[in-house]
Every structure is written in structure tokens, then in C-alpha cells.
Amino acid sequence: MTKDDHQDAVAREPDPRTADNRAEAFHGVRVARRNELAEDYVELIAELIHTQGEARPVDIATKMGVTAPTVAKTLGRLARDGLITRAKYRSVFLTDEGRALAKECRHRHEIVLRFLLSLGLDSETAERDAEGIEHHVSERTLALFAAFANRS
Amino acid sequence: MTKDDHQDAVAREPDPRTADNRAEAFHGVRVARRNELAEDYVELIAELIHTQGEARPVDIATKMGVTAPTVAKTLGRLARDGLITRAKYRSVFLTDEGRALAKECRHRHEIVLRFLLSLGLDSETAERDAEGIEHHVSERTLALFAAFANRS
DNA sequence: GCATAAAGTTAGTCTAGGCTAACAATCTGC
DNA sequence: GCAGATTGTTAGCCTAGACTAACTTTATGC
Description:
InterPro entries (chains A, B): DtxR_MntR_Metal-Reg, Fe_dep_repressor, Fe_dep_repressor_sf, HTH_DTXR, HTH_MarR-typ, Iron_dep_repressor, WH-like_DNA-bd_sf, WH_DNA-bd_sf
Helix content of chain A: 55-70%
Pfam families (chains A, B): Fe_dep_repr_C (PF02742), Fe_dep_repress (PF01325)
Mean pLDDT of chain A: 87
Subcellular location (chains A, B): Cytoplasm
CATH superfamily of chain A: Winged helix-like DNA-binding domain superfamily/Winged helix DNA-binding domain
Distance between the termini of chain A: 35 Å
Number of helices of chain A: 6
Low-confidence stretches of chain A: 1-19
Keywords (chains A, B): Activator, Cytoplasm, DNA-binding, Manganese, Repressor, Transcription, Transcription regulation
Organism (chains A, B): Paracoccus maritimus
Radius of gyration of chain A: 17 Å
Oligomer: homodimer
Number of domains of chain A: 1
């Protein structure tokens, strides 16, 4: 599973093959949860680079609604996992891997958002819910969402 | 916000009123994430009591796909938060509050699941995605899901 | 009714992801 | 070009949620 590539250091989960369907589902949710924050960060970093020209920790902190030290620590993990590069007191850059993940996330986010809007949801609620939902949508579900949002 | 009542001991988040929409959305996701595990547990406990007559830690561990000590620690938190009662070496019971939360979760889970199925998703994927999505769906979105699943 | 198996608990470790306090570096305005 | 403001980092603390190892209690089979 590609989504796990940068999570090798994480404690091994019980073998899902021996567990029942329910346990598999929970296992999947835990795996997704592990990656959520990283996905949110690379997506935001890509956006900041696009709109501001650079991704500064202070802006990341503001957009994420957390403090600067939290951002610093998280960026350390992202760098360790090969998603970003950074130099001390300088702004942040995405690696190829980080850029690819950001693109994928943005794609998923947009489909989920368009889908919710096409259901008739107001844009503020749609944005908030999309932020939570996007990390838990399988390829199959995403395809159905996209098809629905594109119906005439 | 009722969902926060049993999370008083958790570190205070930055005031969402001062943050922008994006930060609010992330804040909401973090709040939801805090409650996810508790919701999964009470939902499962209610189900076990209904189907097996009692909720034993060993069954919770199997269904959740985690080890027994993890279950023990988590049950300790649920008891502390007033969602369950337990006696040493005995099975687990829901408090009124826990029962109410379980009911609400089951309700949300069922709507999300029926919605995904009505989109044409296979039941296995629907079950897995519902498990992740159900915690991130607002009341408003849930209402739309329910309406869609009930369309003729 | 006792030995053993199964279930539950306790203790200790680890990582993620929050925070504050304190300090260091960079940027800005005069 | 330097003082003060802004930004970034480091250190240290905390909780949640996962694990293993070791122990205790309860249940079971003969």
C-alpha cells in the first residue's frame, strides 16, 4: 500500500488477515488516521507555495490552527518521512514524493467537496466536512462521488 | 457542544473564533478525531451486549483488532469519562450517557452505510468507508445522506 | 476440587501530536 | 546599521493510543 511507504517506523499492527471484517475496517481507519495529518500538511504547503510563493511555518501554523512549535515538530516528521525538505529558519519545500501526495490529496479533496456541494450542501459545511471525510474515502467510493457530481 | 462533555481534561485548543475558516475546519477535525475511538467503543459495546448478552474485553479486543491491554487502558478512559461502568474481571456496561452516545453513533453509521450502498457501492467497501466517514459527517450532511438513501 | 487454560490487569515502553516557556535568528523601520 | 518586532527553534511536559512481558483472577475439564 503506497500510502504506507513513509510510515515504516510506525509500530506494526496486528496481522489484518487473521482478524474479522470489523477489525479490518478499524485497522483501515487507524492506518488512514496515521496519514491524515501528513496529508493535510503537504496539501496546505502546496497551496501556500502556489498562492504565496513560499510555505512559511508561521502561515502553516495559522492555517492549521496550531502553535509554531507544533508545526516545527510536525515538519520534522514530514522531513524524516521524505515528504519535505527544509533548512533552518527557511521556508519549506516539497519533495517529489510530497508533491505527488499533495496532488493526490487535492484531487480527492476537490472530488469530495464537489460531491457534497452537488448534494445541495452549503459551501461552508461542505468545506468542513470534506476536510474530515477526504481521508476515509476509498478509490471506489471516490469514483462514485466523482460520477455523481458530474451528472447533468 | 455535547460531544465535548466527556473531554474536559483534554488540552484547550486555540480559540476557533480568532482563526480563519481553514483553521476552523482543521480544529473541527481534531475534535472529531478525539471522540472517534470512544464512539467506536461504545457502539461496539452496545452491539456486543445486544448480540452476546454481555461485552467482554476479549471480544472487544478481537473486534477492534487490538490487544487486551490496549482495551483495558481505553476502557479506563471511557469509565473516567462517564461512558461505561466496570468491575474488575467483569464485563462492561454502558452508562445512560454511553447508551445515548452509542445510539447516536449507530444511527449515524446506518445512515452513512445506507447512503453508500444506495450510491451503488459494494457492501464490503461501504462498511469499511462508513467506519471512517461516520465520525466526520455534520448533522446537515447526514440529513442529506438520509434523504438521498430514501429517494425512490 | 484441582490443574490448567483463558481472560483480565498492571507495569513499562514507544510514537504522535498537542502545549508553554525560553531562547535564537531574521527582518524592518528608522 | 542597529533596536525592536517577528519568526523559528529547542527543551520539556502532557495525553492518547498502541505494544510486550509478567502477573492475577476466573473459568473449565477431568
